[in-house]
């Protein structure tokens, strides 16, 4: 669906609200699909997304919010309320992606806000005397409420009247490669605010705004915000990577990793107050660098109440008293901070269990610890230009040197770079340097670039990690075909034959093109894990040959049998893209007692130039087993779903199934009769942990936490 087909005009003047709504309604009636915004400036009021849809902004496309305040007003439960520019409630499998821009046109809203403040109207969250006017509400740019399986990817968000992107009570949210901008003095223009949400991934984002770059929040009775990873992001103007101030529903299991802070007011920030509290626990900030920030580290439970912070009067503990414990700050480097930091709890509820490990801060002034207990400073070096490095007020602090790692278990880190700044210029050279039968992990960090080489990891070199900064910029490629190599098994660009191989943020490519099998990667290894990787070719892209393999948040493309082999493999939250008419999978299983197979969970299948359609799979051998669970299928999927590879006898032995397929390609009534529509009981066997655990109880979901960040 292209919005211009529904009357939209991209002249920056015409209101396109109804055109957007008609396009979205048509998509909903079809069961899902894409709503495409072409080049142009499309003015609109509030719009609501629907399930199984993607709002796709092409390069040069701009969705600009109306500047008419009344367009956003509505009544909710008898009270005045305000809509976001883009909203969605209780929808699933929804995406906003592309190379375009969503512009909130925030200037008139900010102007009204400043005028109200000048007139003495208190800001939201601050005390207001009864009878006094309150701040006029401002719309959020994107607000998704009670949604699941959300993707926001590659778009630019700018100039929201208030918060830019808020997933509220959402689950399974990915925010990838998003740029968010607003003037440094724009009020309350937070970048990303997950609120009472779980399973959230924020990666490769650049955020330059007037308030919190990222803020993790929760509301009472709405549940915690939990299981959040913020990684490989750059924060510029703004208030840093924050938790709070509203934490009434709890915050837990949070990691901020490998991020850069440039000129932010704050770096690491946990904030709350006596009337906003809940339990904040298990928060890790790791491998961060900061330059020219205001306060490098601030954990403060006196938000909006500096007078009480000075008085330090103990008050009764209530259900809204904030509790902060088990916070780890590891591998932090800070240059040019104004203040090293503050860790300030409440007299009645000290902050507890804080670890600072390998922290180096050069600042104008030092750090204060007040009302805190069980604080450990391990290898901490604070160098203020004036005053004491550390001031302690009613705090229990233990200072230790860095612990030496046991030589036999220490991870080895190697750097590969074309520009001569690494340990090696090629990936294969780094692999060759790994000792045979090594017992400790070797992380090979590959700096951005295109590495055209054949890569071979033999079986006697286990425990190797390939790590890039971004899959789009770290590419391992070659252009060998099966015709040239003499066999498909020899056409691969990369071969992985050793157990316990991990890859993160890497593209594996065979650039041969059409006309022959051309394998991007051949994996014949146990406990192989791929995270945020891309696999690019045409025919036979990914050869999952043997062993247990786990692919999460990956992109895989091809057109014929492009995921094939006899491995026991799970593909979770992956994007599978068909480049032409053909077959997604070709699995090999020799009899029905073998436990291998391919499982796709919560994946999205898209396609282009697919002609008569694409089959989900065909049996490479008679007992092939492939299952799709909770996947979104594009309309290009052949209604029959599965092919017998010109052998009707295989219809009696192949085990092909689906469970709760969604999207225009989900068509259970038209599927071949020998395939299966699975029950909730039948899919229990294919749960990721159970399917992959083997005799050693492997848990691939725990493995990413063991990766060792590079030391660049």
Quick overview of this protein structure:
The chain has 712 residues and is mainly β. 6% of the residues lie in helices and 45% in strands.
Describe the structure.
The protein is mainly β and 712 residues long. It has 3 domains: 330 residues, 3 Solenoid (Pectate Lyase C-like); 106 residues, no CATH class; 141 residues, Single-stranded right-handed beta-helix, Pectin lyase-like (Pectate Lyase C-like, 3 Solenoid). The chain has a 25-stranded parallel β-sheet that branches. It is globular, with a radius of gyration of 27 Å. The two termini are 45 Å apart. The C terminus is likely disordered.
Write the layout of secondary structure elements.
Elements: E1 11-15, H1 17-29, E2 33-37, E3 40-44, E4 47-48, E5 53-57, E6 61-65, E7 73-76, E8 79-82, E9 86-89, E10 92-98, E11 101-103, H2 107-118, E12 142-145, E13 148-153, E14 156-158, E15 165-168, E16 171-176, E17 179-181, E18 198-203, E19 206-208, E20 214-218, E21 225-231, E22 234-235, E23 241-247, E24 251-257, E25 260-262, E26 266-271, E27 279-291, E28 295-300, H3 306-311, E29 323-344, E30 351-384, E31 390-400, E32 412-416, H4 427-432, E33 442-446, E34 449-452, E35 455-457, E36 464-467, E37 474-478, H5 482-485, E38 494-496, E39 502-504, E40 507-510, E41 521-524, E42 528-531, E43 534-536, E44 542-546, E45 548-552, E46 555-565, E47 568-572, E48 575-587, E49 597-601, E50 604-607, E51 614-619, E52 625-629, E53 632-633, E54 655-659, E55 676-677, H6 688-692
Parallel strand pairs: 1-3, 2-5, 3-6, 4-9, 5-10, 6-11, 9-12, 10-13, 11-14, 12-15, 13-16, 14-17, 16-18, 17-19, 18-21, 19-22, 20-23, 21-24, 22-25, 23-26, 24-27, 25-27, 26-28, 27-29, 28-29, 29-30, 30-31, 32-33, 33-36, 34-37, 35-38, 36-39, 37-40, 38-41, 39-42, 40-43, 41-44, 42-45, 43-46, 44-46, ...
Antiparallel strand pairs: 7-8
């Amino acid at each position: 669906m292209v919005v211009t087909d529904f009357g939209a005009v991209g002249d920056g003047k015409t209101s396109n609200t109804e055109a957007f709504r008609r396009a979205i309604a048509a998509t909903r009636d079809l069961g899902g699909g894409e709503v495409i915004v072409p080049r142009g400036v499309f003015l609109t009021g509030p719009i609501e997304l629907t399930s199984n849809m993607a709002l796709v902004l092409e390069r040069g496309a701009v969705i600009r919010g109306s500047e008419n305040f009344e367009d956003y007003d509505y009544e909710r439960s008898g009270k005045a309320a305000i809509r976001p520019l883009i909203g969605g409630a209780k929808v699933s499998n929804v995406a906003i992606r592309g190379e375009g821009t969503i512009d909130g046109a925030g200037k008139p809203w900010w102007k009204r806000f400043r005028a109200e403040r000048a007139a003495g109207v208190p800001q939201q969250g601050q005390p207001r005397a009864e009878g006094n006017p309150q701040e006029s509400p401002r719309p959020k740019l994107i607000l998704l409420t009670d949604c699941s399986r959300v993707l926001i990817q590659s778009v630019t968000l700018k100039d929201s009247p208030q918060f830019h992107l808020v997933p509220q009570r959402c689950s399974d949210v990915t925010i990838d490669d998003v740029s968010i901008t607003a003037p440094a003095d724009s009020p309350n223009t937070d970048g990303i605010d997950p609120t009472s949400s779980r399973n959230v991934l924020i990666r490769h984002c650049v955020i330059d705004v007037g308030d919190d770059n990222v803020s993790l929040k929760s509301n009472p009775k709405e549940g915690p915000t939990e299981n959040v990873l913020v990684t490989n992001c750059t924060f510029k103007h703004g208030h840093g990577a924050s938790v709070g101030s509203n934490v009434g529903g709890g915050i837990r299991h949070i990691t901020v990793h490998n991020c850069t802070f440039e000129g932010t007011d704050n770096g690491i920030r946990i904030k709350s107050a006596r009337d906003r509290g809940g339990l904040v626990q298990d928060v890790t900030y790791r491998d961060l660098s900061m330059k020219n920030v205001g306060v490098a580290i601030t954990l403060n439970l006196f938000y909006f109440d500096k007078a009480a912070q000075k008085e330090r009067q103990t008050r009764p503990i209530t259900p809204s008293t904030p509790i902060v414990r088990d916070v780890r700050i590891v591998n932090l480097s800070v240059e040019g901070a104004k203040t090293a930091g503050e860790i300030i709890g409440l007299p009645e509820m000290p902050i507890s269990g804080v670890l600072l490990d390998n922290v180096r801060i050069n600042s104008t002034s030092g750090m204060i610890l007040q009302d805190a207990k069980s604080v450990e400073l391990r290898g901490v070096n604070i160098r203020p230009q004036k005053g004491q490095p550390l001031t302690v007020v009613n705090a229990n602090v233990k200072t230790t040197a860095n612990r030496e790692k046991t030589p036999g278990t220490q991870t080895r880190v190697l750097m590969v770079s074309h520009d001569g700044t690494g340990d090696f210029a090629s990936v294969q050279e780094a692999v060759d340097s790994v000792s045979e039968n090594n017992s400790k992990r070797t992380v090979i960090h590959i700096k951005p670039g295109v590495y055209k080489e054949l890569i071979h990891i033999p079986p006697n070199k286990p425990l190797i990690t390939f790590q890039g900064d971004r899959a789009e910029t770290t590419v391992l490629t070659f252009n060998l075909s099966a015709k040239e190599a003499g066999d498909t098994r020899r056409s691969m660009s990369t071969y992985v034959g050793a157990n316990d191989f991990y890859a993160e943020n890497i593209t594996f490519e065979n650039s041969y093109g059409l006309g022959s099998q051309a394998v991007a990667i051949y994996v014949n290894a146990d406990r192989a894990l791929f995270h945020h990787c891309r696999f690019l070719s045409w025919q036979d892209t990914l050869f999952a040959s043997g062993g247990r393999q786990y692919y999460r948040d990956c992109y895989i493309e091809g057109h014929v049998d492009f995921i094939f082999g006899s491995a026991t493999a799970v593909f979770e939250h992956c994007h599978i893209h068909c480049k032409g008419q053909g077959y997604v999978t070709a699995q090999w299983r020799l009899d029905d007692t073998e436990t291998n197979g391919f499982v796709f969970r919560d994946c999205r299948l898209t396609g282009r130039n697919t002609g008569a359609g694409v089959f989900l799979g065909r049996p490479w051998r008679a007992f092939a087993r492939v299952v799709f669970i909770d996947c979104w299928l594009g309309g290009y999927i052949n209604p029959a779903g599965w092919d017998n590879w010109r052998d009707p006898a295989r219809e009696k032995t192949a085990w092909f199934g689906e469970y709760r397929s969604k999207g225009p390609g989900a068509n259970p009534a038209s599927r071949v009769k020998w395939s299966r529509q699975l029950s909730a009981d039948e899919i229990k066997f294919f749960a990721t942990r159970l399917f992959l655990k083997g005799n050693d109880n492997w848990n691939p979901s725990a493995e990413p936490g063991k990766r060792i960040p590079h030391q660049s």
